[in-house]
Structure to design on (158 residues):
């Protein structure tokens, strides 16, 4: 029997779960990362540093989800190679596929979206501008298996 997907057969001939993967979202605040995480990647465990509040809690949740066989989506800004490196290292350590999904969003659009946010979801405009200024588009050479670039409201504004 030939299996042409990422599924393998267990001893009882039931399909095994597919290999978990790590998806790293990349984009400035207001670019649509959380919306994408909760729609397109709704079946993956969402990892968001803002809600977890510490890198320790983030790492613990990542390792727990992966050890349970779940795919994860990292819903943080991840605008620099250095910020993304921690997730690439985890993927390599566990021999898991990892891909980046980068949301390109004009600064003005992100600022408008951010202005509509309330409570802890709202970030200062200076933070949005800072992330826009330091934004590095992800590339496979960083260690990703693939990189997808999505237009989230118009051409990128550096």
């Amino acid at each position: 029997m030939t299996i042409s997907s990422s599924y393998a057969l267990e001893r009882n001939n039931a399909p095994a779960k597919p290999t978990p993967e790590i998806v790293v979202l990349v984009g400035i605040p207001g670019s649509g990362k959380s919306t994408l995480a909760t729609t397109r990647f709704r079946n993956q465990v969402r990892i968001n540093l803002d809600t977890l509040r510490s890198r320790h809690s983030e790492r613990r949740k990542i390792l727990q989800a992966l050890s349970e066989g779940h795919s994860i989506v990292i819903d943080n800004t991840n605008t620099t190679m250095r910020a993304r490196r921690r997730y690439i290292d985890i993927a390599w350590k566990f021999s898991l596929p990892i891909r980046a999904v980068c949301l390109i969003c004009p600064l003005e659009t992100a600022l408008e979206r951010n202005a509509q946010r309330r409570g802890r979801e709202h970030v200062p405009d200076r933070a949005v501008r800072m992330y826009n200024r330091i934004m590095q588009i992800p590339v496979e050479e960083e260690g990703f298996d693939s990189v997808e670039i999505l237009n989230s409201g118009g051409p990128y504004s550096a």
The two ends are 52 Å apart (CA to CA). The helical segments are 33-39, 49-52, 55-67, 81-93, 107-115, 125-134. The longest strand covers residues 98-104.
